[in-house]
Amino acid sequence: MSAAQKYPAPAVMGPESIMSKKAHGTSATPVQENLRWKVDQEVADRICNFNRHYAEYSGYFQNVPEFMIQTNDTPADEEITFYDSNTGKPLFYAPRGRTMEQFIKESRNHGWPSFRDDEVEWKNVRLLMNGETVSVDGTHLGHNLPDGKGSRYCINLVCVAGNPTK
């Protein structure tokens, strides 16, 4: 690991400038309309675009019935793709290298959807030196809170509830 990179590969470090002021907070656009799982659009816009430190409340994802139903109904050999709530770019895939039950259990234990390195789309996600996890387009996603298993990305569901762009 170089002196400029605080977290080990495969994490892709990004410059602080990713989160510079843009047309809509730290992003060029507001969150999409009709976000998946019927998450709160106002909360999503505030957390994704006008925030660097705060999060949806712990356990929020467990109180989103549409999301919990999808995790329950996802076949064992499939995964859910999580898209940027602003741009619709893919950011995370879960579960990868574990079961959905393991993904949900870890997420419940920590209060937010918790992703591991293999579940991150590094083409579209960057990690800042302070652990803030962001999209390449300036969407605040959450934070990396490493544990004994390695990097653990605690991510706000409202920030990854976008619809894929065509």
Record keyword descriptors for this entry.
166 residues, alpha+beta, five-stranded antiparallel sheet, two-stranded antiparallel ribbon, globular
Topology:
Elements: H1 41-49, H2 65-73, E1 80-83, E2 90-94, H3 100-110, E3 114-115, E4 125-127, E5 132-135, E6 140-144, E7 153-155
What does the model show?
With 166 residues, the protein is of the alpha+beta class. Helices cover 17% and strands 16% of the residues. The chain has a five-stranded antiparallel beta sheet with strand order 3-7-6-5-4. A hairpin with an 8-residue loop joins β6 and β7. The mean pLDDT is 95.
Give a quick summary of the entry.
This protein has 166 residues and is of the alpha+beta class. The protein contains 3 helices and 7 strands, in the order H-H-E-E-H-E-E-E-E-E.
Low-confidence stretches: none
Instruction: State the total count of DSSP E strands.
Output: 7
The order of strands across the largest sheet is: 3-7-6-5-4
The residue-averaged pLDDT reads 95
Please count the helical segments.
3
- Helical fraction equals 10-25%
Structural class: alpha+beta
Strand content: 15-25%
Gyration radius, in Å: 15 Å
Report on the biggest sheet. 5 strands, antiparallel
Order of helices and strands: HHEEHEEEEE
Give the end-to-end Cα distance, rounded to a whole number of Å.
36 Å
What general form does the structure show? Answer: globular
